[in-house]
Here is the input.
Amino acid sequence: MVDRKAFRDLSYGLYIITAVDGEKKVGCVVNTFNQVTSSPARVSVAINKDNFTTGVVLASGRFEASVLAESAPMELIGRFGFQSSADIDKFADTAYTLDEAGVPYVNEHTVAHFGARVIETVDVGTHMLIVGEVEEAAVLSDAAPMTYAYYHEVKGGKTPAKASSYTPDEPAAAPEAAPAPTARIGWKCKICGYVIEVDELPEDFQCPICKQGREMFERIEITD
Here is the structure.
């Protein structure tokens, strides 16, 4: 028997994987980036086959990994984690730098970056496991790196359905506490966790982070 709850005890970080195809810069958020050897320095990342970024990484043979800091705002995470590079330019409102190979990496709210050349790929079902040899790396700040637990517990983030760690039976959010006298009305996106303080959402409201419609928001009470 496999108890899927056991997987919730595994530890992860949070990273932005980026690549480039001609003039088109792409990227997505993952929690599966890891160092696999030290000499030579090699890393691996598992990315869903349906992600637009996966195809660009495989076609170009290169990728960058930016280590997100705890200060990374939900807007940045939502841009790269809940939208597709096929539909929007994720770098239009993102600070980035090109590495020596011309691959962009996010340089805001990040701790370090790693530029890698793909040396091996393994089809693991829903995801491609990509192994790369690190050809460039640097520390970008002394900020604390964000863990996946911090993303969930402190920032209230959700797991995208395409993520390696997504499980359909994830526990629902804890019920709201009884309203205090200072309670205010708000709405929370059930996909990315974005909260807006307003009595009612317009019928055409769209989440600024993951672009979901009003039907994906739940009414909550905000207390000081």
Summary: Helices lie at 52-60, 74-81, 148-153. The two ends are 44 Å apart (CA to CA).
